[in-house]
Please model this.
Amino acid sequence: MNGKLETIVRGAARIMLDNEKAPAHRKPGHNNFVTDADVMVQEYLHGKLQAFLPGSVFFSEEQDNSALTDAPTWVVDPIDGTFNFIKGRKCSAISVALLSDRRPILGVIFNPYSNEFFRAENGHGATLNSHPIKPSDTTFDIALVNFGTSPYQPELSRQGMNAALEFLTHAGDLRRSGSAALEMCEIAAGRADVFFEMSLSPWDYAAASLIVKESGAHFAMPLENNEDFGRPACVLACNNKCLEQSLQIIRAAAGRE
Model:
């Protein structure tokens, strides 16, 4: 399955790169956009993935989605980091997860600009360009923290920025790239030590969650009682040594402690 899936995702990436000047359109929410390239990539993946796995369901950013069921389900972000894509920042990715019984069993994230293909399969570890990856063992006091700002939800943006200040004060330093999927892959590969965002949609985190877990790092939804891959959630990914302090900061920022 993995080889065929990689071929499909790389085909989608060619569409993405061939349409870097595609028109952009506003969506509801602050500074929220979709481009014609997002739609073209999504339509391509919709057809290819459902033909690849007949009877599967397609759950994606640029469409109206029904509630998750136990059926095999592709959770897709056609271009994660759309605003980066519009600006030509070359930090965007295609994210594809396959869920079974509402849990990820396969995840791939591809950054065509760096030719980095992250992949994980449940119980089989995580890889970058077919080489195994693992998280860092950096301690919290010098941790590099990736974060997102939840820009479409002002009340959560404020919570997130309060948490970011706490991380900046007590950990090492902060980074914000604009692609949550790639930032979580950096946790899996040991390039950064913590990632958090107060609200992400399933297509932002489904594939990355499995890559993080299979690398040996932690993935959590700190403000939820149970993981639900069918709705937005606060997300944390981090190495083993940063877990407890990261949880405390996020829960305090959300008024949960």
